[in-house]
Amino acid sequence: MRTFVALRVGPPLRRRLHREAERLKDAENALRLVHEADLHVTLQFLGGTTDDETWRVSRALAEVAEAHPPIHAEYVGLGAFPNAERARVAWAGVREEPETAGRLEALVEAINQALGGLGFPPERRRFHPHVTLGRLRRRPSPAFVAAIEAAAAEPWGAETLSEVKLIVSDPSHQPYHYIDLTTVDLMGGEEDA
């Protein structure tokens, strides 16, 4: 199984972000959109996991979640990896509301530590919170680049993310569909910011 740990975007903001993804697709028809229901913030990619590893990861995530409070997230701007002119991934940015800043990075660090102990190394790249909207396999059109640049600071909305998910990619659907294997609630006490 190909798995990852994530926070799912809630329904109202999923709709809003997916509409923005569709606008990007209008500018670049080759953009392969992520299904609306599958929009998420990846915390750690695990790759191939066995049933036994999945069980151990689920237990570790439950322990981490007990110590971490919910995340108050804002979705702001559009961007692309590695950049708009050579985009392979189109994304919506994620940042924490100022009064709870630091919780998301602390959660990612705790997950990396817990799962590192199970043999899943953390991502080598610096954590850049985002929601992947779609993927490209060719150089994007000038219209796509302009659309990304025009929405670089656009606010999309905010929500509280309170569930960490262990998710599996279902390769029988194209593009991939994601299925929740485990859900754990972020239950740590609300700390003063």
What does this structure look like?
It is globular and about 45 Å long. The chain is of the alpha+beta class. Helix content is 29%, strand content 35%. The longest helix is centred in the first third of the chain and has 17 residues. The chain has one domain: Cyclic Phosphodiesterase, Chain: A (Alpha-Beta Complex), CATH 3.90.1140.10. The strands form two sheets. The chain has a five-stranded antiparallel beta sheet.
State the main characteristics.
193 residues, alpha+beta, Cyclic Phosphodiesterase, Chain: A, 4-stranded antiparallel β-sheet, 9 strands, globular
Question: Quick gist of this model?
Answer:
This protein is α+β, with helices and mostly antiparallel strands and 193 residues long. It contains four helices and nine strands. The chain has a single domain (2-185), classed as Cyclic phosphodiesterase (Cyclic Phosphodiesterase, Chain: A).
